[in-house]
């Protein structure tokens, strides 16, 4: 064990740092895109405060199409766009854009589902008092849906962990790249097992923190 740590400890630590960089940056950007997109779906759907069947159909179709494409295929499909935007298609920098393209629609759908749980009667009560749509969205819908939204973001973060591992196939770095380059390609299963254990620990921590945060918000 000591020999393994001495040989691979630094590489696994570096892979962990890169994986967390990809996950955190991609999740933040996905939230910045996904929440407004989810709110738009809520507002423009049938019976929404800004009902617009045409716009809803377009947004809904775009989200469904992107979510239908497996990440590894999407990764190769948008390589030219990634190169144009990020200037590279490898490393952490080269995988952020594909991760956001994949995750943002997923976040939007999760946010839509969470906000749909808000009692419509509460929304109608605020509307009857003449409260603006913007304030209703921020102070009623999002506030009431905070707990399920956090649970949704927890699911998205865990999904991103898996996608960063797949991104290792194209030299994105991180734990996935380490497991593929050494654990699989060079037939060193101990490296792969170590990476799997680290990934399991990361997922368990994220899930536990997400659950705890959601419970805390639900009590408030």
Describe it for me?
With 220 residues, the chain is mostly helical. The chain has a single domain, classed as MetI-like (MetI-like fold, Orthogonal Bundle), CATH 1.10.3720.10. Helix content is 84%, strand content 0%. The chain has ten helices and no strands. It has helices at residues 2-44, 53-68, 71-77, 79-86, 91-116, 120-128, 133-144, 146-167, 174-184, 189-219. It is elongated and about 70 Å long. The termini are far apart.
What would the keywords be for this entry?
mainly alpha, elongated, single chain, MetI-like fold, 220 residues, 84% helix
The helical percent reads over 70%
Encode the helix/strand succession as letters. Answer: HHHHHHHHHH
Coarse structural class: mainly alpha
CATH C-level category:
Mainly Alpha
Averaged pLDDT, please? Answer: 87
CATH-assigned homologous superfamily: MetI-like
CATH topology: MetI-like fold
Output the radius of gyration. 20 Å
Q: What's the structural domain tally?
A: 1
User: Number of DSSP helices?
Assistant: 10
Strand fraction equals under 5%
Largest sheet: none
3D shape: elongated
Q: How far apart are the first and last residues' alpha carbons, in Å?
A: 46 Å
The assigned CATH architecture is Orthogonal Bundle
Number of strands: 0
The stretches of 5 or more residues where confidence is low (pLDDT under 50) are none
